[in-house]
Design a protein that fits this description.
Elements: E1 4-8, E2 13-20, E3 25-28, E4 38-39, E5 41-45, E6 48-51, H1 53-59, E7 66-68, H2 78-81, E8 91-93, E9 100-103, E10 106-108, H3 110-129, E11 135-140, H4 146-158, E12 162-168, H5 169-176, E13 184-192, E14 197-205, E15 208-217, H6 222-241, H7 253-272, E16 278-285, E17 288-295, H8 296-320, E18 330-334, H9 341-351, H10 364-376, E19 384-388, E20 393-397, E21 401-406, E22 411-412, E23 414-420, E24 430-436, E25 446-453, E26 466-472, E27 478-484, E28 490-494, H11 503-547, H12 553-570, H13 575-588, H14 590-621
Parallel strand pairs: 1-11, 11-12, 13-18, 15-19
Antiparallel strand pairs: 1-2, 2-3, 2-4, 5-6, 5-7, 8-9, 9-10, 13-14, 14-15, 16-17, 19-22, 20-21, 20-24, 23-26, 24-25, 26-27, 27-28
């Protein structure tokens, strides 16, 4: 088979990995600057699209045109997300099924935004291997429903990737840890990412990973931690400075920028307090500076309710698997939010054992995806992955009742059959309504698809025998077939979820992605050379302040001319000109850099001699 890479398409960060055939170990592919994580942020500008760090940098300046945490919107409709929208600075519009985002003067869907992230990872892998990469294993939260899984496949297709398998993130993490080497045992994988929480219980025996149960919350993650801290800081700003930063008016540019500054500050404080007991926040906000000392104990009090919310699904997954905490042999932590010390303590208290955290929690899912990719490519033959469907699947029957054909936590791939009949004399058409969820009534579950079985011979009610077959593939995506046994009339559907994209939509988006690709690359390259120019200008200005007096008049004049030339070039769009002027300024300041180095060395030697003299003097005094 051709090369297959593993991709973790994350809420906060995304990664691409592969198995190094020389070592047999999975490896994350870095970008050309050595960064392994790609922030899952996409910025839309008049000049093109920014991805990753470049998009993160524009978030505070252009929040309304910068999309982050798009994974929370994948495969979801307006009713699913309307209560969360006030927390996003970009506009989300109701669409036909899928929501749409109004950014940068155009409308895009969540799968299109995710496709931009996937395409960037695809390019990173192609640069690394020096050859095209067209196939990938992509991970999703275990509790993603059919619509969300289909949206992920659509994103891959738009990005030019054949998503050969969708794997649940906790299962991928187990593969990364190589827990098949246990021989046999039961593993709990606690996965708290940026936007979702999953718990999976797996049994490993003779290299076979069998998922026994899974549970979780697709509305809970590190984003929610940041939001709670942000609102707490907001209340503190209002109380101490009597300022009203309207949390519901993020579409207003000034307030939107302030809210993003506050959100980023909350995230930074959370990260620092995961390793320190105390930190200080200094933040310029709308014409005044907010200054606040924060302790770990303070944020743990705020986060306790959210962390406690993760424990209910853990207990439910144990119950579904017919196990108790003492039956668990290993606990694995996945997701950047598991770095929070409170999370680690609560997990250890629940399961009664210290969890594994040796692997980087940001990378472990991508590494596992790479292992699964290698299994599918035929490179690993002594491991097998048996996953489960996270939610029950069924058909609506008379009175709006749901008849479950495939219960949740059924090992996939799988199929199920059940016989139905008509409820009205002479009925020739049967409307089939496929739903997903755990409620008794169809209206309380997610509608996945409707289709009709036509051409049934008119018979008294109860006489026709209609066999309905559900088939779930290894990606957790459903196909349904209905057949009337007496006449042989049949109808089938590959379930396109209510909130999925049509084939025509996907094809149009693929074409647009190619149309935009060249402009997007041009925009990114221009931004990169401008960033390099800014860095050089900053260093030269600092050097002038520190050592400008050491320069002769002619040399100083030459450097000032090179600075002015670079500033003029930077204001334009000619990448080559910016690069040339940057190189010229570097060359013009070589002698200045040498003089600064000599001055620094002389200063260090003088300090060392002074210390030695002081040391001898103090020893004589003693």
């Amino acid at each position: 088979m051709s090369r297959i890479v593993g991709i973790d398409l994350g809420t906060t960060n995304s990664l691409v990995a592969y198995v190094d055939e020389r070592t047999g170990l999975p490896v994350v592919i870095p970008d050309r600057d050595g960064r392994r994580l790609l922030p899952s942020i996409v910025g839309f500008t008049p000049d093109g699209v920014l991805v990753g760090e470049a998009a993160r940098r524009q978030l505070a300046r252009r929040p309304a045109d910068t999309v982050y945490s798009v994974k929370r919107l994948m495969g979801r409709g307006w009713e699913d997300v309307k209560d969360e929208l006030r927390y996003f600075p970009f506009r989300v519009l109701p669409g036909e099924g899928v929501v749409r985002l109004a950014v940068g003067g155009r409308e895009v869907t969540p799968p299109e935004v995710s496709a931009i992230v996937l395409r960037t990872l695809k390019e990173r892998a192609e640069t690394h291997f020096g050859e095209p990469v067209e196939k990938a294993v992509v991970t999703v939260p275990a509790y993603f429903n059919d619509s969300q899984r289909q949206a992920t496949k659509d994103a891959g297709r738009i990005a030019g990737l054949d998503v050969v398998r969708i794997v649940n993130e906790p299962t991928a993490a187990s593969l990364a840890y190589g827990l098949h080497r246990l021989g046999q045992g039961v593993i709990a994988v606690y996965d708290l990412g940026g936007g979702t929480f999953d718990i999976s219980i797996l049994r490993v025996k003779d290299g076979i990973f069998e998922v026994l149960a899974t549970n979780g919350d697709t509305h809970l993650g590190g984003d929610d931690f940041d939001r709670v801290l942000m609102l707490w800081l907001l209340e503190d700003v209002q109380a101490r400075h009597h300022r009203e930063l309207d949390r519901d008016c993020v579409e207003l540019a000034r307030d939107g920028e302030a809210m993003q500054e506050l959100r980023l500050a909350a995230e930074a404080a959370k990260i620092r307090l995961s390793t320190e007991e105390r930190t200080t926040l200094t933040l310029p906000l709308a014409g005044f500076t907010y200054h606040r000392a924060i302790t770990r104990a303070e944020i743990e009090r705020l986060l306790e309710p959210l962390v406690s919310r993760t424990l209910g699904p853990c207990r439910q997954a144990l119950a579904d698997a017919g196990l108790t905490p003492s039956d668990i042999d290993q606990v694995v932590l996945v997701g950047g939010s598991t770095r929070v010390p409170l999370v680690r303590r609560r997990v250890q208290e629940l399961f009664g054992k210290a969890p594994h955290s040796q692997l980087n929690p940001d990378e472990v899912v991508a590494l596992g995806a790479a292992v699964q990719a290698q299994i599918l490519a035929g490179g690993i033959k002594d491991m097998l992955l048996l996953d489960v469907t996270p939610l029950s699947l069924g058909i609506e029957t008379l009175g709006g009742i749901v008849s479950i054909l495939i219960p949740r936590n059924t090992t996939i791939p799988t199929s199920a059959r059940e016989m139905f009949t008509t409820s009205v004399d002479g009925q020739t058409v049967v409307d089939m309504h496929v739903v997903q969820g755990e409620r008794e009534l169809a209206r309380d579950n997610r509608s996945l698809a409707r289709f009709e079985l036509r051409g049934i011979d008119p018979m008294p009610a109860g006489m026709p025998k209609i066999e309905v077959t559900f088939l779930i593939d290894a990606n957790g995506i459903l196909q349904v077939q209905a057949r009337e046994q007496r006449t042989g009339k049949a109808a089938s559907i590959e379930v396109k979820p209510t909130y999925g994209l049509s084939d025509a939509d996907v094809e149009r988006m693929v074409e647009e992605s190619f149309a935009y690709a060249e402009a997007d690359v041009e925009a990114r390259l221009l931004i990169e050379v401008r960033n390099e120019a800014d860095t050089v200008l900053t260093h030269v200005e600092r050097a002038f302040r520190q050592a400008g007096a050491l320069l002769g008049a002619e040399e100083r004049k030459a450097i000032e001319a090179a600075v002015a030339a670079l500033r003029r070039a930077r204001a334009g769009d000619d990448r080559d000109a910016i690069r040339e002027r940057t190189s010229e300024l570097n060359h013009a300041t070589e002698h200045l850099a040498e003089m600064m180095m000599e001055a620094a060395l002389k200063g260090a030697l003088d300090t060392k001699r002074a210390d030695e003299i002081m040391g001898r003097g103090s020893s004589r005094e003693q």
